[in-house]
Amino acid sequence: MEVYAYAFLKIPTVELELPLGIGQAVQLVPGKQICAVVEFDVDIQRLQGDDALLVQAIVAHDRTLGELFPQQCLLPLRFGTLFRSLQALQEHLITREAEYLEKLDRFVGQGEYILKCLPRPEPEFEISAEVRGKAYLLAKKQRYQVIQAFQNEQSAQWDWIRRQVTECYPQAIASDLEDQSHRIFLLAPIQEEPLLYERFQEWQQTCSAWELQLGDALPPYHFV
């Protein structure tokens, strides 16, 4: 019987509040020092054949990790991670134990934060319909110059944001989206969250051509 896995974590020293997973409450499968958060009877093929069910399952996967993460440091697994049997999972936990212990020690007390950088729209520069001839050409030139200056400033501000984040959080990962916005994934100590928000306010004040959004602490999805 296949086993659906959500995460790996050290065997808890206190009882955890195990949340509802995709269809039922999750369980812990122990190895020696590492255990897996799992759910049985998850039919991935059925979920992948129905878009609505698939979305619900993905949301449930992330919610489950989000409810476990504040209780104990964990290594999150991608949606759809399956082991062919309970025995295969336990063998995996024992074989990879040293690697997972090292990662868990490295990530303890750390959270992944997502900084979204959304470009603000270009300034409006309307040309009156009454403008004609050379005055119209001059107005078009001025509009081009204003927009070009804004775009240059916006680009320079993005370079500045990326440098600032990388200097403060060297493991940060930046990604570009199709709509010209950006995301930066950064790893930071959860206890230093107030400092992160102070820096976030400084970044926003300095970069008026961007709207910045900072998410809450998540499991280290992009750093495992």
TrEMBL record:
Pfam family, any one: GvpL_GvpF
Domain of life from the UniProt record: Bacteria
Cytoplasm is among the record's keywords: no
Keywords: Gas vesicle
Location of the protein in the cell: Gas vesicle
Main location: other
Family membership noted in the UniProt record: Belongs to the gas vesicle GvpF/GvpL family.
Protein's recorded name: GvpL/GvpF family gas vesicle protein
Organism, as annotated: Laspinema olomoucense D3b
Lineage: Bacteria, Bacillati, Cyanobacteriota, Cyanophyceae, Oscillatoriophycideae
